[in-house]
UniProtKB/TrEMBL annotation:
It catalyses: prostaglandin H2 = prostaglandin E2; prostaglandin H2 = (12S)-hydroxy-(5Z,8E,10E)-heptadecatrienoate + malonaldehyde. GO terms for biological process: prostaglandin biosynthetic process. Residues 183-332 form the GST C-terminal domain. Pathway: Lipid metabolism; prostaglandin biosynthesis. Keywords: Fatty acid biosynthesis, Fatty acid metabolism, Isomerase, Lipid biosynthesis, Lipid metabolism, Membrane, Prostaglandin biosynthesis, Prostaglandin metabolism, Transmembrane, Transmembrane helix. Residues 100-176 form the GST N-terminal domain. It comes from Malus baccata (Siberian crab apple). It is found in: Endomembrane system. PANTHER family: MICROSOMAL PROSTAGLANDIN E SYNTHASE-2 (PTHR12782), PROSTAGLANDIN E SYNTHASE 2 (PTHR12782:SF5). Belongs to the GST superfamily. Its EC number is 5.3.99.3. This is Prostaglandin E synthase 2. One of its GO terms (cellular component) is mitochondrion. GO terms for molecular function: prostaglandin-E synthase activity.
Amino acid sequence: MRRASTLASLPRLSRSLSTAHGGAASTLAPATYGLLQVALYGTTSTGSQARRRWLDSFSGGSGRKLAIGVAGTLASVAVATSLAPEVYAKEPPPAALVPKEVVLYQYEACPFCNKVKAFLDYHDIPYKVVEVNPLSKKEIKWSEYKKVPILMVDGEQLVDSSAIIDQLNSKIVPERAAASSPDDDEEKKWRQWVDNHLVHMLSPNIYRNTLEALESFDYITSNGNFSYTEKISVKYAGAAAMYFVSKKLKKKYNITDERASLYEAAETWVDALNGRDFLGGSKPNLADLAVFGVLRPIRYLRSGKDMVEHTRIGEWYSRMEQAVGEPARIKA
Ligand SMILES: N[C@@H](CCC(=O)N[C@@H](CS)C(=O)NCC(=O)O)C(=O)O
């Protein structure tokens, strides 16, 4: 009986899967450098002679020697500083602004759900997860919205990943959300790039051949909400279905070589960083969190490993892993 209903739902599976993944079928620190310049009398500043006089007044004319000693000490501090790894940390909101109850209805491997989780994790907002069965969707029967993610925040239903993040952001950082700055345009542009471009790179890559499609479905079924029989049938039937769907998606999004397109997207993102640790500067902004969230489900699949091996995105990704830290998910 159970088996029959599972198999009967397979056409629905391919429909669900085709809409998944995109709706179409993720030196020296300046201060140290400044100090060194001061210790070395400065090279550009007109205050250099005054500084030497100031040092001489303490050292009976041996200001130069003293300065060299200070410079040496500072240089060793600078070397130690440059060797010490940067520490990137989460950014929790003030306790009063943290919602009391947050529940995420999701598919574990869904890039849109992972965008929302990246935001919640980075801001250390505790959340419960309800893993939705993509075949029956019985866990979201109560909602008129038929996709995931759905986020319940203190009883209020939020839908659509980017809208969810905007609304949460204005709840937990109201002052930043209200004040607009030129950086916002850049953040907005790249968030749109994630939704309109980057997500479309995923399916053609993770289902590009039978081996990778099976690897992806192994990950999806191991982490998703499926019964035992569903797991087996979904793994093989899903992998086969998505292999064909991904070919259609390639056509739809004009992708000829899916890996080359993924690498190009990764390089485009690194170029956008323009030497900064994050698009947001010294801390991730919403675009960093969106790119990270969308790439997180594929990072340790063959395609994600290839991407890190063949592009410059790895260092930024590692910084993001460090900043986002441990999941804020409440274990049931
Ligand atoms: N624009 C939506 C897209 C959400 C979406 O397409 N989610 C997929 C899962 S990755 C889904 O629920 N598809 C419908 C289905 O599974 O039936 C968002 O950003 O949240």
